[in-house]
Task: inverse folding
């Protein structure tokens, strides 16, 4: 395995960096999109709430691979050129945002209705109530499950290998096909993913403990 690291260090580093870039971009985009959809689901406006519900149910129940392949294979047929890397990020964003939306909705719903009503009775607008009363409490509730979704996103980024996305898994397949050392190659690639996911797991665990301590106080 150390020989593989030495001989194919350039490919491994490039794949590692591409995996990080894809994960970070998809993370930020899915957090924004999922947050908005999650808020839509909690609105009194039935049309927006229904749109949010349909979005979540649609993308949450479709395999990630199908979403990615749709943008990689189908969309280019209609004149829009999308690389495997880009289609992977779009697919990861749409797929992950559906789960994040569900987390955000649950967090908002967990805030007691009486607090919302009290804020409105004090003359706050809906936006002010969300900004100063609901969302600060909801954030504490959703941080741990959001962390788990981010970890899942990093692992799901291996889907880029299916569309020549130049990620860790893509180069792992390439190295394995050249060396026929499948055990060493995929053990090495698994270790590279652990380099990303283990610190994230520890960070999520730390945040959970900190929030629990604050609740006790």
Result:
């Amino acid at each position: 395995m150390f020989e593989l690291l030495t001989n194919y260090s350039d490919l491994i580093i490039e794949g590692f960096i591409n995996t990080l870039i894809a994960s970070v971009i998809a993370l930020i985009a899915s957090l924004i999109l999922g947050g908005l959809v999650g808020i839509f689901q909690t609105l009194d406006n039935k049309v927006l709430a229904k749109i949010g519900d349909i979005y979540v149910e649609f993308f949450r129940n479709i395999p990630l691979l199908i979403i990615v392949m749709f943008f990689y294979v189908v969309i280019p047929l209609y004149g829009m050129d999308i690389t495997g890397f880009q289609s992977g990020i779009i697919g990861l964003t749409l797929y992950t945002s559906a789960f994040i939306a569900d987390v955000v909705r649950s967090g908002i719903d967990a805030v007691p209705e009486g607090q919302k009503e009290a804020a409105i009775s004090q003359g706050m607008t809906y936006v002010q109530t969300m900004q100063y009363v609901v969302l600060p409490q909801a954030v504490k509730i959703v941080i741990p499950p959001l962390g788990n979704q981010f970890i899942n996103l990093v692992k799901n980024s291996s889907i880029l290998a299916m569309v020549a996305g130049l990620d860790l898994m893509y180069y792992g397949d390439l190295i394995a096909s050249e060396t026929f050392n499948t055990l060493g190659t995929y053990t090495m690639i698994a270790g590279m993913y652990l380099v990303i996911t283990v610190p994230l797991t520890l960070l999520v665990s730390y945040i959970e403990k900190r929030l629990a301590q604050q609740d006790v106080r």
In short: The longest helix spans residues 182-216. The CA atoms of residues 161 and 170 lie 4 Å apart. The chain is about 85% helix and 0% strand. The chain has a mean pLDDT of 90.
